[in-house]
TrEMBL record:
A Pfam family hit: DENR_N
Entry comment, domain topic: The SUI1 domain may be involved in RNA binding.
Keywords: Cytoplasm, Initiation factor, Protein biosynthesis, Ribonucleoprotein, Ribosomal protein
Compartment(s) of residence: Cytoplasm
Cross-referenced NCBIfam families: DRP1
Taxonomic placement: Eukaryota, Fungi, Fungi incertae sedis, Mucoromycota, Mucoromycotina
Originating species: Mucor ambiguus
Subunit structure: Interacts with the 40S ribosomal subunit.
Protein name per Swiss-Prot or TrEMBL: Translation machinery-associated protein 22
GO cellular component: cytoplasm; ribonucleoprotein complex; ribosome
Length: 176
């Protein structure tokens, strides 16, 4: 990436370190004056007649904010879970739902189509009770889905995938 873009990439510190290692003359040329300007900004004060000359320094580093934002998103991804839930409907019928794949950047519609083609069953994207998208696959494919997710999307860690089995409650025999 050209040096001009480093400032806006969100990884300015990495660019600085790389440039310092590879070409120290260029580093001094590009970032040498930055220290003097930064020190001048830190020492500068804005005078306001009404506030009796309060000292204020204005230091905003956009790249640091971007790096922090990327780090927060990464932590959120690592803390989030993918749930594969098998739900019994009637006698021998069941449905498998997959929730949480969208957090890892998976296109749910494409994934649903892939599951439908692979397992020769109905598969769609639907909203759950909380209003969030999930994939609904008709049939009991929880083990195969787990393997398929790990194979097709390596950015989804295996330790973040949970399998849940939900059985339908039977009526008590005394109420018959």
């Amino acid at each position: 990436m050209p040096l001009e873009y480093c400032e806006f990439s969100g990884t300015q510190e990495k660019c600085k370190l790389w440039l310092k290692e590879k070409d120290e003359d260029m580093y001094e040329e590009v970032y040498g004056g930055v220290k003097a300007v930064t020190e001048g900004v830190e020492k500068a004060t804005i005078e306001d007649e009404a506030s009796d000359k309060k000292d204020r320094t204005v230091v905003k580093d956009k790249s640091a904010k971007l790096e922090a934002k990327l780090e927060r998103e990464n932590k959120k991804k690592m803390a989030s879970r993918v749930l594969i839930k098998r739900i019994e409907r009637t006698k021998r019928k069941c449905v498998t739902t997959i929730y949480g794949l969208d957090i890892f950047g998976v296109d749910l519609k494409k994934a649903a189509k892939m599951f439908a083609n692979r397992f020769a069953c109905g598969s769609s994207v639907a909203k759950n009770n909380q209003g969030q998208d999930e994939i609904v696959v008709q049939g009991d494919f929880s083990d195969e889905l787990l393997k398929m997710i790990l194979k097709n999307w390596p950015n989804v860690p295996e330790e973040n995938i949970d399998k849940i089995e939900e059985k339908k409650k039977k009526k008590a025999e005394s109420q018959v």
